[in-house]
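Quick bug: DUF3310 domain-containing protein output formatted oddly.
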Amino acid sequence: MEQFNNITKPKHYQGKHGLEAMDVIRNFMWDLKGVAAGAWWNTMKYLLRFQKKNGVEDLKKARQHLDWLIEEMENEF
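Here's what came back:
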């Protein structure tokens, strides 16, 4: 079996002990819906992959998505 595949199992979404980013995201998704869910999902995705893919660019993307999540959560109340 192939360890990495750019479509279904890219290296930048797998941790050093084999844990997949998708497993982490699914485990912590809980009850968010809509735009908040998308913003949270992307924040986590960029944080989990930044060291293996786009470095500071991914951190900036994570920050932008986190700002959108904060806006959604603030508007909810």
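Actually, after a second look the formatting is fine. The helical segments are 21-28, 34-49, 56-76. Closing.
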